[in-house]
Design a protein that fits this description.
13-stranded antiparallel beta sheet, 27 strands, 7-stranded beta/alpha barrel, Beta-galactosidase, Chain A, domain 5, single chain
Amino acid sequence: MNVKMNLILGVSNHIPNGAADEEFEALYNYNIRPLVSALYQFPQINMVFHYSGVLLYWIERNHPEIFVLLEDLLSRKQIELLGGGFYEPMMPFLPQADKIGQIEMLTTYIRKQFGKRPQGCWIPSHAWEQDLVSPLDACGMNYTFLNESYFQAAGAKLKQGYWYDPCITEDQGKIIIVFPVFSSLEEKKPGEILEKFLHYDGTDSFEGPITVFPVFNAALESRKHAFSGEKAETEYLKFFEELSNTNSQIEFTTPSRIYKNFLNLSKLYLNGLPVSSQNNNLIVPRQLLIDCPEAGLIYAKMIHTRLLINQLRGDKARKLSALEELWKAQDSSLFSHPGLANATVRKAAYRALLEAENITREKSTFSPSLSVFDYDLNGKDEYIFKDEKVSCYILSQGACLFELDYIPKAWNYLDTFLPSLGKRRSAFVEYLVPGTSLPEINWQGIKDARFCGEENFQIEELDRLRRLLCFYLPPKQGFPLCNIEIKKTWQLKRNVLSLKYELKNSGPDHENFFLIPMIDLSFSGGNESFLRILAIRGSLKEKINSTGQNELYLEELGGIEFRDLKNEAVLTLESNRQFSARIFNVEDIKDNNLYEYHFSCIMPVLPVSLESQKNLDILFTLKISS
């Protein structure tokens, strides 16, 4: 090799807001502390570190001693800290003000803690759109890093079959330098990484940097359960020892040392369109919202909350508090199926969004409302009831409830995403089951029944003054019980949600069937440490022992009371007609074949006998109180 080559090594770590403390501890013990401690012993090796604001904030409060080592590494210019969004957001989904706000929040934190302002930033998940250049430039970011696949997609020339040069990219007259990240080398051993570069002859490129980012993390992460933190440090020591013994013509450096000296960089416009099936790390950000509908709903909630915050006038402190809650819910991990599967992180995001909404409410002037707009951004209107303590979101498909927020505790009782199904479920979707003998009932469905949850109801009445909404489902051939007409009338009044069913038999024959609404509610857990269930019969309430049971069968009910112990709330479901009910705790396998609670499915069962041209009314109420 005739030319010295600069090699940039780096690491990126993040734990989402709301994750269990054990996750932070595991990352610290098996990754952060061993890596920093090992690197400290090799002053000739430079690295770039990116830790999200969430992670840095946790380290500051739980292991501030590592900050001393980081400060020392910074003072001897051995490492560089990257900026980025404080809560590791999915950048393309954010309004311009939020992009800048999140970046400035992390920049300010790093400057206050370590005395140095970052010059470059990290793009979470490599989720890139070209208009990110302007906010990065506005925040004083001179460079960033993107997966090598973006360079390939933009037509960059491959250098000697191994790497791409950094490039300049532009938007609206603003420019930024982009370094390629060689994720394809992520799990290689040091010798394997460097072997490619030792044969470089300098004929194909300027004397430039090669970026390998992150370093060794994936390989170590996969084995972290096999050894202690001390063993992890030994592994890193071996790693840096091998790097130290490489050819002297490789220089380990940081981008802030060299980016100003770049000459003749190519200009590329980088896009998010994959060019081959091998580009598994190339993310098309907007496609995530299509591929994972639950991610689309969280995105819609973010947009709706941002609109509410924009309406705040004249109170900067309130607006900033609301924005900081909103930013907590913009985490990039929430926009992929694996991230959404983490119930604690998902619920923390909803909690933050509802806290932000609550901050926007003027308690003295708040007025209950019924509004109509395309909430989920799919071209169809949704219907939103808002009361002082309860908000309800209704879909016309199924005329069902898809979000139920209890504002005082910032809790969405319809956060019922189930990873194995890949989607959220709703509440008050009905099965009409023919006959007088009840078939097998399961939370996943009922065979040979008419499922109304996938049928499109028509709007029959919308009364904003009374906050009343009536849907109508006409007779429809080709279904069981096709001559049964259904009206569903929703009303939210004094924080009590009521649903009135009007069933009519428009056919010539007498019909016997069961009406079985399916009501999913998400609590913090399904056992008695989190949830107590009481059967209501007349004026009496009987506590139901649900210990060790994932399925309950209750009879002769006037209602059911659910005591949410964590949120200190009581949900009371009552009907004007006696019913029986099946209650299921729905669980899914998480890790190591352990089951995790996701939600409770309540299925009231009401027998119905209707003569031709006769009607029957059934009323349900759902009350949430402290």
